[in-house]
């Protein structure tokens, strides 16, 4: 009887070890799915679970908000008048990437495009266009242009250009240095 009880104890220990390893693996997978925290040390499992729950709740709120916006926009289209078309102002976003700039311009199909002015100002300031692309989605045109930049004073020119054309072109906003400036 002795050999069977010791083998069953070994089996239980092996099963428990396997279960612990599976739980550790699942916790590691969970940790990779939630955003990184500033702390470099590994979180205890209860804290990790709390963060995961908070993250899921936050994502749920984001989804609900985006669905609400989509429904409002769809309702405007169903009513026969697209609210975004009549209120769509061009949006200029400039992102600093060190020695490069990413310029994004979103404009409506029926709006006056000032892409040429943006390109002219940047090239006058010494920026060199590396690549450009555009796509049309619905009633909007999305332009993306990458520039190689040699001078940092280019940002002042972008803001100046934006202020110069704001009245004429009804530009809603510009993003420079990662900060959003509304007019």
Automatic annotation (TrEMBL):
PROSITE patterns recorded: BHLH (PS50888)
GO cellular component assignments: RNA polymerase II transcription regulator complex
Keyword set, alphabetical order: Coiled coil, Nucleus, Transcription, Transcription regulation
Keyword Transcription regulation: yes
Domain of life: Eukaryota
Molecular function terms from GO: DNA-binding transcription factor activity, RNA polymerase II-specific; protein dimerization activity; RNA polymerase II transcription regulatory region sequence-specific DNA binding
Domain (BHLH): residue spans on this chain: 7-59
Subcellular location: Nucleus
Primary location class: nucleus
Keyword check for Transcription: yes
Pfam family, one: HLH
Coiled coil: 49-76
Protein name (Swiss-Prot/TrEMBL): BHLH domain-containing protein
The organism's taxonomic lineage, starting at the top: Eukaryota, Viridiplantae, Streptophyta, Embryophyta, Tracheophyta
């Amino acid at each position: 009887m002795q050999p069977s009880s010791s083998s069953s104890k070994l089996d239980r220990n092996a099963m428990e070890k396997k279960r612990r390893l599976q739980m550790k693996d699942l916790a590691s997978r969970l940790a990779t799915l939630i955003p990184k925290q500033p702390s470099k040390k590994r979180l205890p499992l209860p804290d990790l679970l709390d963060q995961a729950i908070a993250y899921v709740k936050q994502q749920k709120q984001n989804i609900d908000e985006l669905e609400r916006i989509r429904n409002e926009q769809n309702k405007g289209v169903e009513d026969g008048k697209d609210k975004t078309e009549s209120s769509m102002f061009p949006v200029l976003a400039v992102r600093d990437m060190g020695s490069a700039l990413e310029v994004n311009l979103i404009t409506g199909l029926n709006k006056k495009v000032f892409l040429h002015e943006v390109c002219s100002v940047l090239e006058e300031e010494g920026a060199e266009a590396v690549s450009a692309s555009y796509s049309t989605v619905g009633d909007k045109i999305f332009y993306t242009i990458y520039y190689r930049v040699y001078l940092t004073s280019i940002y002042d020119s972008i803001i100046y250009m934006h202020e110069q054309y704001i009245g004429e072109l009804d530009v809603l906003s510009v993003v420079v240095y990662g900060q959003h400036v509304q007019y």
